[in-house]
Design goal:
Helix content of chain A: under 10%
Mean pLDDT of chain B: 90
Mean pLDDT of chain A: 91
Radius of gyration of chain B: 14 Å
Low-confidence stretches of chain B: none
Shape of chain B: globular
Order of helices and strands of chain A: EEEEEEEEEEEE
Order of helices and strands of chain B: EEEEEEEEEEE
Distance between the termini of chain B: 38 Å
Number of strands of chain B: 11
Oligomer: heterodimer
Number of helices of chain A: 0
Number of helices of chain B: 0
Distance between the termini of chain A: 41 Å
Shape of chain A: globular
Largest sheet of chain B: 7 strands, mixed
Strand content of chain B: over 45%
Largest interface: A-B, 24 and 28 residues
Strand content of chain A: over 45%
Structural class of chain A: mainly beta
């Protein structure tokens, strides 16, 4: 079974600065999908960014970008120009490829990293 | 555009009482549907998922059950709640076709069992 590890329980960053969240995963599959989700105090899970393992180019979404290192099984998230609204719990998630309908789309989540943004 | 609804938003129930949480999706058809639970200060645990009406797969043996009576409706139930059932319950949907199949989450239900 795949496991996702987020080793940083909490990260603090000043406004306008950059913070990087780490995520590692364990898998024997060659094709898969990786996601970062944000959970603000409202607790709704919001998709931040996603990456297909077969793509070498790192995904970016505005101020959010990833550093995907397939050989190292690492998928870090960089938040640039941090804003107060970025304060939230961030979860890394892994999804297996669609081999069978039994495994369709299930996500394996890490434990999360709390991002604190200070003025 | 697609939207996903969950209700109730908050629920306080005594131990031993029944439970019914509802999730509905609008703006799409034939979605994959998922129920997750999040204990306080922890990550998400997949409870059930469904690829079609009446098709339910369970990830973790527990006191809960799920049903999908309609294409865009997913219900989480229990006959008798336990204290350990307390948590935040999230429903999610994903497209059945396509390689990305990103999951989109509802607003969640906070359940407290006393």
């Amino acid at each position: 079974a795949q496991t996702v590890t987020q080793s940083q329980p909490e990260m603090s960053v000043q406004e306008a600065e950059t913070v990087t969240l780490s995520c590692t995963y364990d898998t024997s599959e060659s094709d898969y999908y990786l996601f970062w989700y944000k959970q603000p105090p409202s607790r709704q899970m919001i998709l931040v960014i996603r990456q297909e393992a077969y793509k070498q180019q790192n995904a970016t979404e505005n101020r959010f970008s990833v550093n995907f290192q397939k050989a190292a099984k690492s998928f870090s998230l960089k938040i640039s120009d941090s804003q107060l609204g970025d304060a939230a719990m961030y979860f890394c998630a892994y999804r297996s490829p669609e081999l069978t309908t039994d495994s369709w789309g299930k996500l394996q989540f890490g434990a999360g990293t709390q991002v604190v943004v200070t003025p | 555009s697609q939207t996903i609804h969950q209700w109730p938003a908050t629920l306080v129930q005594p131990v031993g009482s029944p439970l019914s949480l509802e999730c509905t999706v609008e703006g799409t058809s034939n979605p994959n549907l998922y129920w997750y639970r999040q204990a306080a200060g922890r990550g998400l645990q997949l409870l059930f998922y469904s690829v079609g009406i009446g098709q339910i797969s369970s990830e973790v043996p527990q006191n809960l059950s799920a049903s999908r009576p309609q294409d865009r409706q997913f219900i989480l139930s229990s006959k008798k709640l336990l204290l350990s059932d307390s948590g935040f319950y999230l429903c999610a949907w994903g497209r059945r076709s396509g390689s990305t199949d990103t999951q989109y989450f509802g607003p969640g239900t906070r359940l407290t069992v006393l």
